[in-house]
Design a protein that fits this description.
- By secondary structure, this protein is an all-alpha fold.
- The protein has two domains: 195 residues, Growth Hormone, Chain: A (Up-down Bundle); 218 residues, MFS general substrate transporter like domains (Growth Hormone, Chain: A).
- It is 75% helix and 1% strand.
- A two-stranded antiparallel sheet has the order 1-2.
- Helix 3 runs antiparallel to helix 16 and helix 4 runs antiparallel to helix 6.
- The relative contact order is 0.14.
C-alpha cells in the first residue's frame, strides 16, 4: 500500500512536470507566427538547446552539493513559472504589437530554469523509490510514461479550450497555462521525500562538470557516435518549432481552413507523443534482435519519413493520412534514437564516468545538436520564404528529409556495430 501511494505521488509529479512543457512546446510557433514573429521562431526553440548546454549541469551541482534535489526542483519550477507568467502578461498587454525582445527575454529565463528540472525530477523519483526499497530500473519506466500522458493532455487542452473565443494554441494563454502548472509543481515538489546532499564530497572541477567523460572522444567509434548524435540531434526541435505553424498556414486556403488538421493541429501532433509511449515498449525487443547500429539507423530513417510525409501531405482527405503517418513514425524517430543511444552509452562506459557520459550524450543531442539544427532550420524556412509563400513549406520539409537521409547513410558507413566487433 505504501509503495502504491508513492507511485501515485510520483505519477502526479511527472504529469505536472511534462504538462507544463506540453502546454506550449508544440503550439508556441503557431502563436508567434500569428503575432508576426515567424522569422524569430528559430530563436525561441534554439534557446532550449542553448540553456541545455550548461543549466542542467549547474543546477545538478546545486542539487548534489547545496540544496536538496526536491527543493531545487521546487525553486526551478517557481522561477520558470513566474517568468512564463510574466511572458503571458506581457503578451496580453501588448495585444497585437508583441515585440521580440521583451517576450524572448522572459521566455528564455523561464526555459533556463525549466530545462534542468527534467533531470532533477528523475533524481527526485529515483531517490524516493530507493528509500522505499523499490527497483528504479524496473519500476520507473511505467511511471515515467505518465509524464508523456501529462504532455499529451496538456497539448489537447491547449488545442480544444478556447478563452475569449480564441483557441489557446492561437493565444498567449498557453503561456499562462504553462506558468500555472509550474507553480503548482513548485509547491508540490516540497512534499516529496527528502534528498541527501554531499557537501563533504570533494571533486575536481573537471569531475564536477563531467568533463572527464570527454576523454571518450579519444575512442574513434565513440567519437563517431557522439558526432552523429549531434547531427541527428539537429532534427529534434524542427517539428516542435514549425509543425503547428505549417499546419496553421493552410488556413489561408478557404477550402482547407476548416479541416481537422488545420483547426486542431495540436491534437493531430499529439499522435506523435502517443506513438512515443508505445514505441518505448518496442526498444528492448529491437535492441536484442537487431543491435544498436540497426536500431539507430531505424531512428535516422524514421526522421526521413517524419519530414517527408509532412512535405507530401495536405489537410484534405486522403492527404491528411500522410500527416498521421508522420506523427506515427515520430515514436520510432525520437525514442529509438534517444533511448537506444542512452543504452549504448551506459553499456560501453565504466561506472566512474557513466553519468558524465550520459551528460555528454545529452549535451551533443539536446544541447549543441538541437541548437544548431533549430537555427539552421530557421535559415532554411527563411530561404524558402514560407511565411509569404506557404506553398514552399513542402520544399523546406524535403530539405530536412534529405538532410536526415544523408546523416543515416553516413552513419551506416562510418559506425561499426559493437556486437560485430565483439564477434570479430
Amino acid at each position: 500500500m505504501k509503495n502504491t501511494q508513492l507511485k501515485f505521488r510520483l505519477v502526479l509529479m511527472l504529469v505536472l512536470q511534462y504538462a507544463a512543457w506540453g502546454a506550449y512546446l508544440t503550439s508556441l510557433g503557431r502563436y508567434l507566427g500569428n503575432s508576426g514573429l515567424g522569422p524569430q521562431i528559430k530563436w525561441f526553440f534554439a534557446m532550449q538547446g542553448i540553456v541545455s548546454i550548461f543549466m542542467p549541469t549547474l543546477m545538478g551541482i546545486v542539487a548534489d552539493r547545496f540544496i536538496p534535489a526536491q527543493k531545487t526542483l521546487s525553486l526551478c519550477h517557481g522561477l520558470a513559472g513566474l517568468f512564463m507568467l510574466g511572458a503571458g502578461f506581457y503578451c496580453m498587454n501588448a495585444g497585437g504589437s508583441v515585440q521580440f525582445a521583451p517576450l524572448f527575454i522572459l521566455y528564455s529565463l523561464s526555459v533556463a530554469f525549466y530545462m534542468p528540472t527534467i533531470a532533477i525530477s528523475n533524481s527526485v523519483a529515483y531517490n524516493a523509490m530507493g528509500k522505499a526499497g523499490m527497483d528504479p530500473v524496473k519500476e520507473f519506466p511505467p511511471i515515467r510514461v505518465f509524464g508523456t500522458v501529462g504532455f499529451i493532455c496538456s497539448m489537447l487542452i491547449t488545442n480544444f479550450v478556447k478563452i475569449g473565443g480564441v483557441a489557446m494554441q492561437d493565444s498567449y494563454t498557453q503561456l499562462y497555462s504553462s506558468g500555472i502548472l509550474s507553480l503548482v509543481l513548485c509547491a508540490y515538489a516540497l512534499s516529496m521525500p527528502e534528498c541527501e546532499i554531499n557537501r563533504g564530497e570533494s571533486k575536481s572541477l573537471a569531475e564536477a562538470f563531467g568533463l572527464k567523460a570527454f576523454t571518450l572522444f579519444k575512442d574513434g567509434q565513440f567519437a563517431v557516435f557522439f558526432i552523429f548524435s549531434m547531427l541527428l540531434g539537429a532534427s529534434l526541435q524542427i517539428t516542435n518549432g514549425y509543425a503547428n505553424t505549417f499546419l496553421g498556414s493552410f488556413a489561408a486556403d478557404p477550402a482547407l481552413a476548416n479541416t481537422f488538421a488545420v483547426k486542431n493541429s495540436n491534437a493531430l501532433i499529439a499522435i506523435s507523443q502517443a506513438s512515443e509511449t508505445l514505441c518505448i515498449l518496442l526498444i528492448p525487443i529491437c535492441m536484442k534482435k537487431f543491435g544498436i547500429k540497426k536500431v539507430m539507423l531505424m531512428a535516422m530513417f524514421a526522421w526521413v519519413f517524419r519530414f517527408g510525409f509532412f512535405g507530401a501531405g495536405n489537410p484534405a482527405w486522403p492527404g491528411v493520412l500522410l500527416f498521421v503517418l508522420s506523427c506515427i513514425v515520430y515514436g520510432v524517430a525520437f525514442d529509438f534514437f534517444n533511448i537506444s543511444g542512452s543504452l549504448y552509452v551506459n553499456e560501453n562506459t565504466t561506472p566512474d564516468i557513466r553519468s558524465s557520459a550520459q551528460g555528454v550524450f545529452m549535451l551533443m543531442t539536446n544541447g549543441l545538436g538541437a541548437t544548431i539544427g533549430t537555427l539552421a532550420a530557421g535559415k532554411v524556412v527563411e530561404a524558402c520564404d514560407v511565411f509569404n509563400t506557404p506553398a514552399n513549406w513542402s520544399t523546406a520539409w524535403y530539405i530536412f528529409a534529405g538532410y536526415a537521409c544523408l546523416v543515416g547513410v553516413l552513419f551506416a558507413i562510418l559506425f561499426k556495430d559493437p556486437q560485430k566487433k565483439k564477434v570479430a
